[in-house]
Amino acid sequence: MIERIxxxxxxxxxxxxxxxxxxxxxxxxxxxxATVDGKVVHVGDPYEQTRTAFQIALWSLERLGxxxxxxxRTRMFxxxxxxxxxxxxxxxxxxxxxxxxxxxxxxxxxxxxxxxVEVEVEAYRGDQ
Length: 128
What we know:
Elements: E1 2-5, H1 10-15, E2 20-23, E3 26-32, E4 35-36, E5 39-40, H2 46-63, E6 71-78, H3 84-95, E7 101-106, E8 117-124
């Protein structure tokens, strides 16, 4: 069984994707940025943008009945290598005790130049 959820973001309908998909026991959350109510927040602050993006991803998981403790993998796409310490610190503030597999990549840019980070999350629902 596959369950899809939407966050109501402007690009989901236009680009044809779901915020999160639950396929069996695996939950996949699409890339999340620090965009709230259609506006980029915490402009210039990689730490707070990362926390906001992950909070959006975690909210999506909660709608699927999962928590941060179910997260098994995270990916962080950053636009400035110099932000890696702040982004990593933000990740640690949320996942220090969960310790998912994590990847951080420097990319040329994101869809809006005010966005400094985009994150993806994968979670696993074990036997209930």
